[in-house]
Amino acid sequence: MPGVCVESDTTTQFQVELQIEGNGIRMEYNERASIWKTVHHLELTSALKIAISIKAEPSVDGSSFSPLDARVDVRGLELIEAFWDSRTLFIATTFNNQPVTINFKPRPSPALKTTYEHIIKVQEAMTRCGQLMNDVAEQRINPLVRYGISLAEVNPTAKMGFGLMKAVFDVLNDQSKYDEIVSDLVIDTGRILPFSNRILEDALCDEVEILDPVIKDLCNLAVETATFLCEYVRKRSTNAPLEYPTVLEDKEPIRNLRTQFKKLDEDLDAAVSGATVRAVDNIENDLLMKRLCPIDNANYQRDRGCVDGTRTQVINDIVKWSTEQIDKDVATQYLNVDRILWVYGMPGIGKSAIANSICCRIDQIKQLGGSFFCRRDDPARSETKSVLPTLIYRLARMHAPYRSRVAQVLRDDPQLAPQLASGELFLSSLQSLKAHPPRPLVLVIDALDECGDPGTRRQLLGHLLKACQRNQWLKSIVISRPEHDIRSFFNTNDIVGRDLGQDDNSRTDIRYFTEVRMKMVADERQVSQDPEPWVGERRLGHIVNRSGGLFIFVEMLSQSLMRFRNPKPPLERLLEGPSEEASIELHKLYLAAIESRVNAEEAESRLISRAVIGVAPHRALCDKSIAAFTGLEIGIVISWVDDLSSLLYRDKTIQNGIRVRHISILEYFTGRFCPLDFRVDVKQADVELSTYSLQTMMRELRFNICGLETSCLPNSDINNLSERVRENISDILQYSCLHWSSHLCANPDPESGEICQLLGAFLRGEHFLYWLEVLSVMGKVPTASVALRRIIACSRKFDEQIVNLAKDGLRFVLAFLAPISTSAPHIYISVLPFTPSELSLWKTAYRLFPNLMRVGEGRMTKWPGSSNLWKGHTGSVNGLAYSPDGLTVVSCSNDKTVQIWDAATGAPIGEPLKGHTSYVESVIYSPDGRNIISGSWDNTIRIWDAATGAPVGEPLTGHTSRVVSLACSPDSRYIISGSNDDTIRIWDAETGAPIGDPLKGHTGSVKSVAYSPNGRNIVSGGTDNTVRIWDVATRSPVGEPLKGHTNYIEIVGYSSDGQSIFSRCNDRIVQIWDAARGVPVGEPLKVLGSGRNLGASYSPAGRNVVSLFFDEIVLLWDGTTANPVDKPLKGHTSFYKDIAYSPDGLNIIRGTYQGPIQMFDTDPKKPATGPLMGHTWDVVSVAYSPDGQKIATASLDKTIRIWDAATGLPIDGPLEEYARSLAYSPDGRHIVSGEEQTFLVRRNRVCE
């Protein structure tokens, strides 16, 4: 009922009051529509008693007199009838001696009108049935009343159809008592009914298209059967069996109806039969489970909620907000009126208990869409990439239409990785959803501060906020500590959080919770309560005061007292002295629990604590595993854990792994507040655990560890594989295989000789193959590439031999990833025979397995080059950049994507990063290697997680034209961008927020930007022919623009010492500037002639600048004085296209359009070798390897050649690949190429 309209000629101001069953219903007046609307949805039933009161209190000078009122009553049945007829209900009365008409306008519905016509048709036929009408009155009315009112929630036609079918069945069943002719029709009708519940509860809500024709047939058949039945009964006695044979005229209609029922039965069985629907459900659920990989133990737990009687106001408020539409005036007292709610509080205040209670309450009324309880010491629950896939899965299980939509999206894109693109999947699947739940569904995330990092948390919150804003049936509750990044997000979006520390009832709740817990201690320890409770008012008050509102204090206190036979003395000791800050009192309680049970002098105790706390971020281990790792007797470990049971517990959900009761305990053990005698040295713990892990793998890994009988079955087809893994691979071996590299690379310090010896033996021997075998049967093969990349990235920790072994191992894993993942036995059968024969891995394997299949001809001796694999973009490549560790390459393209590549193989890593809506012009890595930043013609900048490829936050918007240049501060905290809108913007890399206003000064596009090495200044160059220096702190120009160029600036950069700036333009000029004074250093670097300047570069030491021109000249300049070092370097008779320094700065190489490559010695200024002949067309790019031993060249003859820098001779044959720009990887093993000349310029700028 959308509203009530009152029509009257009276001029008296009046109010309208609506009452239902004597209870007032809040009304709001809509002046534009002149109606009073009910705040809440009204569900009408025929028995409702509704009253409308019109009241006024005329007053003079504030004094009321002669109250006026009028009242009309209306029955629910009257409104229902008006509802079905789609008409307005008029009721007349008088007010203030004037006629008044009150209009009730139920919401019209064409679907209901059509359905109602069906009902009327049946009813008209049934009314002629005489006595039978009385027998089936209830069946006739129930479909109308019971189903009709809620048709807005379900498919109205289908629901009414099943209602009619049920009524028909009841009538037929009753008539069959007197007439056997209809018995078969009863059976046919009854066969249809079992489908009704299933369809009404699930399938019809989906609005599955395949159901539509079947539903129509069902309704038509129901009406036709009911009409026939009524006519049939009318012609016969309804109270006695028939005495005469059935009239022939009735046989044919019954036969036709049975034929239709048979067909309908088949159609229903094909479309929505119980078995089919269950099968579809199972298929979709299996698909979602497989692709989304939800975290099972991240759901709420019923037994972890608040103690009954505590936190009731908080829980009730939040549940009310979650499930109802709350008036703004009321809501703003505690809650925000948005569709996302933030609840926050300090550690130990009871946030997770409240979250569990809220979830339980909402789940009971079937409105919990999903929950995710984060936990820092659980790897699966501490990664933000797991949150949305898990919530998507749970929401899909709750709402069938959403499940079908998500399943379809996943089927349409088999390559979609939900862990990387969960935000896109979440938002797109919700947006395309047509059937919405009738009531709000709520998503709950607890302890968000224990998950991910600020950047990924901000991204997750952004997706949640968008989803809730776009879908009015969806709400979210986020519970966390008030961390800066989380608070900043909600403040930025004007969302007011609820501070649990400001709860008015917290002290009362703490007091009650203390009473309950102390009684539990008394009952457990059988403490006498005579003549008074052992915790009287005085002690109770002390405990409450010391808790400071932290429930965890009371919980830990009770757990600690449980350990004593007589808890009174330890309680008195704990309550001695004045109360301090809540966190200090909590730390004192932790320390008391440790001191009373642990001997600080015992080396065994320290060893156990380092093992337990050290493995916590990865996976909690049980007593047996800790004992096996440390070499201690299991009884010692069990006693240690038992003694600290007030702080630790054994989690049965993860094989009795030892966990802390609260994350603050983990923080205490490793933090500065814990005394050194008990503090866990995390660095030492990682060293010990890396040693344990390597020793365990060397000791326990073996060939065919699971005893597989055949190689004919893939891992997925081995029925009992998980049981075999559990029986044959010990818990510590599983842990070691997964996490050894995490501990080994946790700190940058060089490793000991013992660990290096262990690691070397592992990487070069058969144990490496056995490790891959274990990962294969565990389904964790990608872990191998992650582990080996860590070793390579931490090259300073290990000697060169180990790093090379890790590189070979990584190449082996990446090359044979598919067979290794598919079948463990095929590591030996299908992979090893094709391994390059020069690898130590092959030599070891052949010695152990001499009967391996051998490749007779064409066997690789070493890994092939990878340049031919660098294909994937569908448009021109605009930019390339190596990651700081040299393991990956990122590219951007006119196809609007960014792609990450594996530098070892050239294979794309994941799918292209999509998000930009136009050409991607520039791409860089942040110096710390964590992020990729891209700039586009769509005027935006995007930040991507370099490890996962997931977007970090929302696009950075603010530029009004193309973003054409990017740079990142040396500490990776800030991003600068140059745009065709003539401005430079500075961005906070963590939050994505712009810092201040744009830097304005250029009068043309800003083509190039760069940070100074110390991060204090920015240099920029633009199409206004000027170079500008900016102070980062003040955001103001440093001095006047640097002028002198007569054409636009293409590139600017700082020397490595930050003392000089160079700028290169389009007019044969390279200028060196004093970075401190902003003045030119000497004259511009130029030569006589007409050739245009093509390139410029600083030498690696930052002392010299080399430039090249179109007119056959290369000049070498002193970067300090700007004077030529000597005469121009000559040797070609054609245009120079590219130029580069060798890494040691001793040589220069240049390429030309005609083909030959010339190398010069920078000291004697004469060619070091003759021209490098081999290309048949123009050479457009040259590059030195980092070690200076090789030169790479790219030519328009569509080849890339590699030359020996010392002899000038070609190394192997040419690589047949078209490229216009080249660069070596940092380790010199690979070359990256692009198809545009601008690539080299851009990469040089990034490197600078």
UniProtKB/TrEMBL annotation:
Protein name (record): Nephrocystin 3-like N-terminal domain-containing protein
Key words of the record: Repeat, WD repeat
Entry keyword annotation includes Membrane: no
The keyword Coiled coil is annotated on this UniProt entry: no
UniProt-listed InterPro entries: NPHP3-like_N, P-loop_NTPase, WD40/YVTN_repeat-like_dom_sf, WD40_PAC1, WD40_repeat_CS, WD40_repeat_dom_sf, WD40_rpt
CDD domains xrefs: WD40
WD repeat residue numbers: 870-911, 913-954, 956-997, 999-1040, 1042-1074, 1172-1208
Domain Nephrocystin 3-like N-terminal: 338-481
Pfam families in alphabetical order: NPHP3_N, WD40
Coiled coil: none
Superkingdom of origin: Eukaryota
Biological source species: Serendipita vermifera MAFF 305830
Xref: PANTHER family: CHROMOSOME UNDETERMINED SCAFFOLD_625, WHOLE GENOME SHOTGUN SEQUENCE (PTHR45333:SF1), MEMBRANE PROTEIN-RELATED (PTHR45333)
